[in-house]
Amino acid sequence: YITEENVKILFSNMEDILDVHNDFLTALEYCLHPEPHSQHELGDVFLKFKEKFIVYEEYCSNHEKALRLLMELNKIPAVRAFLSSCMLLGGRKTTDIPLEGYLLTPIQRICKYPLLLKELAKRTPTKHPDYQAVLNALQAMKTVCTNINETKRQMEKLEALEQLQSHIEGWEGSNLTDISTQLLLQGNLLKISAGN
């Protein structure tokens, strides 16, 4: 029922995200360790990782497709039972949080960073050595989130083109996504024939 391709669609590049966050956590823990640091410089840690957070673009762009697939898979009783048993095996006493909730977690995490940095900037004294880095990190993380949203919008446009092409009977031309990147106008078309 659940193919390797389905797993790739559902979980996308989650392992890459995990790798980035393991490194990020290590860097944060090192920064917060009392020795050799007398000043915690969290802004610098975010700035060092801003390029690595690009890993979220693929995951976020794929999220809607993953949810649609999961809805289809959940219609199969054996798959639904399997997913429930996986949650129970994972130590959950209940299945209150479905897989959809867990698939949303990475998106929520990356979107929280600008909010956390904004709060950190409010609470960091302007004379603190990390103050400017926190402000720079805030701006950098806002940019990361904006880029992720833009990539996601672009993927949605391409999926709309693919969906449109799949509804055209007898399509023999090139794939629309090969020759165009966005849908300019969508509506109903009425063909009027002379005669018959």
UniProtKB/TrEMBL annotation:
PANTHER family per UniProt: DEP DOMAIN PROTEIN, PHOSPHATIDYLINOSITOL 3,4,5-TRISPHOSPHATE-DEPENDENT RAC EXCHANGER 1 PROTEIN
Sequence ranges assigned to domain DH in this UniProt record: 1-151
Organism expressing this protein natively: Micrurus lemniscatus lemniscatus
Gene3D superfamilies listed in its UniProt record: Dbl homology (DH) domain, Pleckstrin-homology domain (PH domain)/Phosphotyrosine-binding domain (PTB)
Matches recorded under SMART domains: RhoGEF (SM00325)
GO molecular function annotations of the record: GTPase activator activity; guanyl-nucleotide exchange factor activity
Range of residues in the leader sequence: none
Protein name: DH domain-containing protein
A cellular component term, taken from the record's GO annotations: plasma membrane
Any one biological process term the GO annotation gives: G protein-coupled receptor signaling pathway
